[in-house]
Design goal:
Two copies of one chain form a homodimer.
Chain A lengths: L1 E5 L5 H10 L3 E5 L6 H5 L3 E3 L2 H7 L2 E4 L4 H9 L4 H4 L5 E4 L5 H12 L4 E4 L2 E2 L1 H6 L3 E6 L2 H11 L3 E8 L3 H29 L4 H8 L7 H12 L8 H18 L4 H15 L10 H8 L5
Parallel strand pairs in A: 1-2, 1-4, 2-3, 4-5, 5-6, 8-9
Antiparallel strand pairs in A: 7-8
């Protein structure tokens, strides 16, 4: 199949690699020297997003944020200029659910289908083709995309209509971020009150406080191993999608907003490129705890 | 063994019942008509906490809050007046870790040992002798208490010195409360953005957002089954222990404080005696969602 892949970053590069390895004709844009191996493996570099959209039947995007997707789709020499009726755009970036619906509507006017399909699982998940993929769109678009998504991920769900994939991803990031904050506050309290956080974590693992975060990130907090993993800087961006979405939808997400503020402090402290479990360092600093 | 049990509420009554059923001599105080079956089963009612402390070698407390424990221990005709050297007080109430250390020190002056042993697992756990019990005290006190604790619970941990059990319980309530708030915010966002919360929950269960709270309380939120379970009113009290403890220890717990505020609103809305998963109703109300 003729596939376009735009956004060859830490995530996109191995994802595109899986599509090439499966024998698809993959058209690439903005191939930096660090991605030259994708061309050697058989990918075709083209000089614009427009050219990629012209050459491919399905165009996949994996970009940093909402404005990047906007620019690649609708900017000069963008995807929209190269699209023709019947093509499918799959946006695997993590961006605004509200804007996603607007993008899909504009592409529908060109006779093209749209699937939002953001992922979780990080760099390791991308490399191992083990990403969790949360999709929004029609069943037809989902079924058309599925064989490609299965080359990149494992737990692939159609959550609902266009935007529902992004909404699900935001919900994921809210829960993960706020659970990290919860475990951070609990452990900071335990430490200040003179209890051993490691023993507290053990005692809590069997009950209602149990979570993947307490298990994995709680252990990181205790062992002080804060190599990413998923960087605080990126999680702050995702909570920004939640906060911006909340504003657009007129709803209050108080703990999400506060946790984003705590991530601001974390970045101000120089922890932006540490794993998000390092949020506990900010809580500890607020408690006057050091080391 | 001669055991005193003071605090025959929803939790204490079945807990005392297990001790009587195991053949211990159990001395009770303030036996209301609803607990008369404990006397029929063999419990001995006495007319003061002081008399209970005189009759028993080990005195167990299961009371609502810090001031209740203070009054029963040190008030007129209280436990302290009936104690003599070598006796052990086990406080299974959920109260202030800081005050717990003060209580233990005062009893140590009388030559008595102290174990804080708060529980989680609720009324059902108490009835089924399946409570999780988090202990703080010396190893000697813990080993002396253990045979009795094993009649009431299953997952029994010595977390650290006196106060560490209460600290662990507070940490548990922080994590549980904040995770409920996290799932509530995520589901409210999903609903407002037009996604089906049930499908979002399903998609998230396999990843880093997975928790016992998402599993059990997330399902309650979707099915709107808010019978307790654990009442918001009681959880607010426990977050009060966290907030008061944070003040005593000069540390900031921003999401804990905000979640306690949300529980204030939940109680103002008339949801105080609903299960704590009903916190989502407050988030939905803040979003203008109804029903």
């Amino acid at each position: 199949m003729n596939i376009g892949f735009i956004g060859l970053g830490v995530m996109g590069s191995p994802m595109a690699g899986h599509l090439i390895a499966a024998g698809h004709s993959v058209f690439l844009n903005r191939v930096k020297p660090v991605c030259q191996h994708l061309v050697e493996q058989g990918g075709t570099p083209l000089d614009s997003a427009r050219a990629v959209a012209q050459a491919a039947d399905i165009i996949i995007l994996m970009l940093p944020d909402t404005p990047d997707v906007d620019a690649v789709l609708f900017g000069p020499n963008g995807v929209a200029e190269g699209l023709s009726k019947g093509k499918l755009v799959i946006d695997m970036s993590s961006i605004s659910p509200v804007q996603t619906q607007a993008f899909a509507a504009r592409l529908a006017d060109l006779g093209c289908d749209y699937l939002d399909a953001p992922v979780s699982g990080g760099e390791l998940g991308a490399k191992n083709a083990a990403l969790t993929i949360m999709c929004g769109g029609t069943t037809a678009a989902f079924e058309r995309a599925r064989p490609l998504l299965e080359l990149m991920g494992k737990n692939i769900t159609l959550v609902g209509d266009v935007g529902a994939g992004q909404t699900c991803k935001v919900a994921n990031q809210i829960i993960v971020g706020l659970t990290i904050a919860a475990v951070s506050e609990a452990m900071t309290f335990a430490k200040a009150a003179g209890a051993d956080p490691a023993k507290v974590r053990e005692a809590l693992m069997g009950g209602f406080a149990a979570s993947r975060i307490l298990e994995v990130h709680g252990e990181r907090m205790i062992n002080r191993t804060f190599d990413p993993g998923f960087r605080i800087r990126l999680h702050r961006k995702d909570l920004g999608l939640a906060v911006d979405g909340a504003k657009a939808l007129n709803l209050a997400l108080p703990n999400t907003a506060t946790t984003q503020q705590l991530m601001n402090t974390a970045i101000a402290r120089g922890d932006g490129d540490k794993d998000h479990s390092a949020l506990i360092l900010t809580l500890e600093a607020l408690a006057g705890q050091t080391g």
